[in-house]
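User: ok so my PI wants both of these folded by tonight, can you help

Assistant: No problem, let's get them done. Here's the first:
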Amino acid sequence: MKVIIVKHIDIEGPGTIADFLDDNDVPCEVIDIFNGESLPNSLSGTSAVIILGGPMNVYEEDKYSFLKQEDEFLKEVIEEDLPTLGFCLGAQLIAKAKGTIIKKAPEKEIGWFKVSLNENGSNDPIFQGFPGEFDVFQWHGDTFDIPDGAVKLAESKLCTNQAFRIGNNVYGLQFHIEVTDEMIYQWMDSYRSEIDSLKGLVNPDQIISDTKIKSENYKAQARQFCLNFFKFLRPS
């Protein structure tokens, strides 16, 4: 059993997902695709695939050639219905692999926001133990339509499509379940120019304050999510 994790930039790592896998002695391989590490030629022996976020856009294939390779890889993953999870850019890449156009969102979501589950989401095993509305951390300017044949699971006031499921095991989440406090603070520093460009629409001090308040609940939420997604780790 091995979990493949695809990383697009150093500061957007697997965070809470890696913590869960380590706590449960599950081997994983982090592929730094931005720095030239190759995707596997075969899915044999792979138990799950995690696609992380990143500052690039899915339609920037001329600038980031690895996005083309990742598109082909995800088409195979989806065809196999391998347990797969994409966060933010990762979700957009999954949607694109299913033929969905990725576009600019009406408004950027940066910071802490509420996400609401619809009836499908409330009944989906991935959100077992979650309330109908819960806090998530967001950092995105693009959005996806729900792919043909996929099931919409969640939405927010600013971005109507927040989560979907393809088949039985492939999930895309626009928000970041995987973030740790340290990752949030690092993003605030590294992506400060983006915050400044929004001319006061995003308050970094408020984000830091909210993170301190919400941290413990968010860690517990992330663990519950991992228990749900990695249910194949537990005997039936």
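One down. Here's the second:
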Amino acid sequence: MKGLEVLSPGPLTTIQDLGRPGLGALGVGVSGAADRASFRLANRLVANPEGAAGLEITLGGLVVRARGPLTVAVTGAACPGTAVNSVVRLPDGAVLRLGEPGSGLRTYLAVRGGIDVPSVLGSRSTDMLSGIGPDPVRAGAFLPVGPPPRSWPQVDAAPRQDIPTTIVLRVVPGPRDDWFTPDGVAVLCERPYTVSADSNRVGLRLRGAALTRSRAGELPTEGMVPGALQVPPSGQPTLLLVDHPVTGGYPVIGVVVTEDVDLAAQVRPGALISFQLR
């Protein structure tokens, strides 16, 4: 059986696809790849369906051995050790090592045929908040690869811009911006926020200018989406990512546009984020 033998998972490697949409009423979040554009590109490069399961590697460090000849693609945060955004062919027994990326946080590895582990609620993605899906990848694991698709890769490389060092995210005000003082959105966009060390796939906890409420009390619980900027009583916003809770009671001052949520998923703790009104 073809597959990947995991020699080292690095700080955190998980199996991801495009998640579990449509199960919010059951309390199940979408989850899936945090940087969906990079994930989809990796699959397209090896001619997989865009939702085929692959690996999401956080801060590099993954070391795998090919069991059988494999065709792979690496996208997202560029890691020393392999070509990025291009098709790579691994002969049987070849070892692929991903170093720590110079910029960005998450790297994606797609294998032609997809990672063929059992699905849970229609998805092979690992939800770090609920624990649904496969466990994080461990050293010694064997990850089987499914049958290859009928189509073949059409290009050898798909050049992309590097992940920028200056992160500016576009935000649409609301739906609860009226819960804040009249200058609340202006304060949000005035100065950069620092991404705190306790950030993860659930969300980015931000530190900076406090956003002051104009109302007392709390909202009834509402549905949440990736990109929502929730503001607890401390006034320090949290930018929700793919493993966010399905509902929340803190007011949302604005929502980052979908295209920029992928970029937010590449921001490291300690980096600065600025917001710009859309």
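The chain has a mean pLDDT of 96. Helices lie at 36-45, 184-190, 258-264. Good luck tonight!
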